[in-house]
Write a structure and sequence with these properties.
Strand content: 15-25%
Number of domains: 2
Shape: elongated
Order of helices and strands: EEEEEEEHHHHEHEEEHHHHHH
Distance between the termini: 76 Å
Helix content: 40-55%
Radius of gyration: 32 Å
Length: 344
């Protein structure tokens, strides 16, 4: 059999017309001009797999190459000499739309399963095994950034700060590392509380002013303690890193990171995990309050006031899949009825 193509000498990009001769026993010769060069057995040659109708490259001795567009002839020879059977099956699959569609569905199911089950599990296992130095570094870095760009020094009287810190510590005893409560003026984020990875919880002055009962602040403290207990910040860092890499791995193009096709799925998955973490912290807070004899309705009360202050208590708002937290009405109802919060 004769296969026409182009020959590239070792270490050079230039091409010369050539043809490949394969005899009935599988012997292979390369014809370039008047030269006839022995290439061994055809079944021993390194041949690139077929990809549609793109040219195939056959690697020859000493780094030389032979390129041909006669894919059908190459396939017939591979089948005849029973070489590269795996690649032939690959071409058979990719040349049939039904097989391609099935592959897309299977890939989608596997990716969905990994994002919903595998990724959270991996992130949790990594987060719980990180040394304390990493947690402190992440928490301190987050606090430094917030102090520089968001927070201002607290205006709460020092006596009020100490009283709240002592009040929280009475209930935090026995929940792992000592928790340090800090106070800041919230500025653009207003009434809020944040749990950092370094066993620090930050309350804004605005949140303290919004509370009508210190037990409401204790309920918020319990929620933030839930974030610390479940190591949500570290898990979020791990998950976000893996989510950001996944589209690039699937698409094979890191530059896609700037495209809308890349950004929307990443954003939606991050929002989903935010809601899951908030629900997990709510469950911790509910059980914490029940265990300490504090009515969980205190969390519902401060949550209602927060939602009203943010204008979120009214009907409507963002769709669930575009929200970082579960809907305020849903959270309030759960703390009133205990629905979905099974405490051990």
């Amino acid at each position: 059999m004769r296969i026409t193509g182009d020959y590239s000498p070792p270490g050079r990009s230039s091409r010369r017309p050539a043809w490949l001769e394969v005899d009935g026993a599988g012997g292979c010769w390369l014809h370039v001009g008047e030269e006839r060069l022995r290439q061994g057995r055809f079944s021993d040659l390194e041949i690139s797999p077929r990809l549609g109708d793109t040219p195939r490259v056959i690697r020859l001795a000493l780094g030389a190459a032979f390129e041909t567009r006669d894919n059908d002839a190459i396939d017939r020879l591979l089948a005849r000499f029973e070489a590269q059977t795996g690649y032939r099956w690959l071409h058979w699959l990719e040349s049939r739309w039904s097989a391609v569609a099935l592959g897309v569905v299977v890939t989608g199911v596997l990716v969905w399963g990994f994002l919903n089950r595998g990724l959270p599990w991996v992130a949790e296992q990594v987060a719980v095994r990180l040394p304390p130095e990493v947690s402190r570094s992440v928490g301190q870095g987050a606090l430094d950034m917030l102090d520089h760009s968001v927070f201002a020094p607290s205006r709460l009287p020092a006596a009020r700060q100490r009283a709240l810190q002592a009040y929280f510590q009475r209930y935090a005893h026995g929940y792992g590392e000592p928790v340090h409560v800090l106070f800041r003026s919230g500025g653009p984020i207003g009434a809020n509380a944040l749990a950092l990875a370094s066993s620090r919880i930050v309350f804004t002055d605005e949140l303290v002013a919004l509370a009508k009962d210190d037990r409401e602040l204790l309920a918020v403290f319990a929620h933030e303690l839930g974030h610390l207990h479940h190591r949500h910040l570290l898990r979020r860092v791990v998950q976000d890193s893996l989510i950001s890499l996944l589209p690039a791995l699937l698409l094979g193009d890191v530059s896609a990171a700037s495209s809308l096709v890349y950004g929307i799925p990443v954003l939606l998955m991050e929002l989903k995990y935010s809601r899951a973490f908030e629900t997990e912290a709510d469950r911790f807070a509910y059980c914490f309050l029940r265990a300490n004899g504090i009515p969980p309705e205190h969390f519902a009360a401060i949550m209602y006031r927060l939602a009203a202050a943010a204008g979120a208590a009214r009907e409507g708002g963002l769709p669930d899949y575009l929200a970082t937290h579960p809907a305020p009405k849903v959270r309030i109802q759960r703390f009133v009825t205990g629905e979905g919060f099974a405490c051990r």
